[in-house]
Amino acid sequence: MTDNSEPLSPRAKLAVTAGRAAAAVSRAAGRGSGSVIGGRVALKLDPDLLARLARHLDVVLVSATNGKTTTTRLIAEALRASGPVVSNALGANMPAGITSALAGGSDARYGVIEVDEKYLAGVAGDVTPKAIALLNLSRDQLDRAAETRMLAERWREGLSGTKATVVANCDDPLVVWAASSSPNVVWVAAGQEWKDDAWSCPSCGGVLQRPGDDWMCGDCGFRRPVPTWALNGDHVLDPHGSAWPIRLQLPGRANRANATTSAAVAATFGVPPQVALERMYQVQAVAGRYDVVTFEGRELRLLLAKNPAGWLETFSLIDPPPTPVILSVNARGADGTDTSWLWDVDYTRLAGHPICVIGDRRLDLAVRLEVAGLDFRVCDTLDEAVRLCPPGRIETIANYTAFQDLRRRVGN
Fold first, then answer.
1. Which of 56, 327, 336, 378 is most deeply buried (CB count within 10 A of its CB)?
2. How far apart are the C-alpha atoms of 207 and 185, rounded to whole Å?
């Protein structure tokens, strides 16, 4: 780790102070945490501030389409076994939000940073990470983000020759192709439930063959690397063949995969798998995800699903029929305004559940459910939907801004 005794320059101190003031004003005005506007103000005053704030830290960057926030939280908990951590725990994952987070970490040893896929290469250039975790790539916000192979190519070019240890999911061909330009890669068999963005070879464009869990291109020979870490049921297999039990309070296979990657990252910093996994058990929820709340006398479990891959994983978490389900979809700037992704989600998995639909784009979702042959009710508000749901805990699934709306309404 580099020396953290070198003080910030007067310009950097001014930028940090101004950023904190802007964030405080934003919070007082009820406009959110203020992390983004605070970071923007700070970077305007000192464009190199992000690099200055990170120079004393051992930094981990985490990027993916799904699972970034949760994996960032798990890694942060694991690394706290070795020292204090600063992290953008609430998911503000573009340079402004990252800058705001690091501004509060002058005494930290580690920086565990979630990074939006589009900004990974640029942030890596600024903060000189010791490790980079790459989880998955799939379609998301098609009006804002690039097509998945273009994102993979951007990662591949940006990480070429990096000195960081890249911890990458060997089950996602796009991630493998992106990470393969790096000289030091730790391959993790974390699985890939959603495969519809990875049937063609990212290297040559040929058709990938997928026998079982393996994959390869018959045209150019590009294939799944041999992993050194693996998720095996409820255990993490480490490079020595030892199996470590995963005991999480967070539900589902996807979170066990996130824990496997997190254990591999923690090991690059000298934290043993047993210690890392024990610390991960402390995580009960992540920025409201998986919380069970009481609203209008009913229990609601809050689940986030932002894109087809995320909805697929979320459907595997919910209680079976006749458990009632409330679905909420918006299409604001942070969600992406294109809702065509709804047609890529297999909503027939909800057959047998009583369904209520809310959110800004509830009619778009209603059309999709109608075509899927499902019975549902369209409601104007969460309150109405809860009143119409039959008895039992309600599974509430929402995309990004709809999820934030739900949290505010239930006081979470």
1. 327
2. 25
The Cα angle at residue 111 between residues 189 and 302, in degrees rounded to 5? 65
Q: Where are the beta strands (DSSP E) in 75-228?
A: 85-87, 110-114, 131-134, 165-169, 185-189, 208-209, 216-217
Measured CA to CA, the distance from residue 321 to residue 352 in angstroms comes to 5
Q: Is 377 exposed, middle or buried (0-12, 13-18, 19+ CB in 10 A)?
A: middle
Least confident residue range of 87-101, 137-151, 343-357: 137-151
Nearest to 328 by CA among 313, 312, 311, 344: 311
CA distance readout (Å), 117 to 44, 124, 145, 291: 23, 11, 8, 26
Q: What are phi and psi of 73, to 5 degrees?
A: -65, -40
pLDDT tens-digit readout, 202-243: 999 999 999 888 999 999 999 999 999 999 999 999 999 999
* 285: number of Cβ within 10 Å: 15
How many Å apart are CA 388 and CA 280, to the nearest integer? 37
Answer yes or no: is pLDDT of 146 > 70: no
What residues does 87 pair with on adjacent strands? 112
Which pTM does this prediction carry?
A: 0.92
What's phi and psi for 363, nearest 5 deg? -75, -35
Confidence at residue 336, expressed as pLDDT on a 0 to 100 scale: 87
d(CA 175, CA 202): 10
3-state DSSP assignment of residue 61:
strand
Strands (E) across 214-370 are located at 216-217, 229-232, 235-237, 243-245, 292-295, 298-304, 325-328, 355-358
CA distance 342 to 347: 9
Element (H, E) at 232: strand 229-232
Q: What is the distance of C-alpha 395 from the center of its chain? A: 20
Report percent pLDDT > 70 for the chain.
Answer: 97
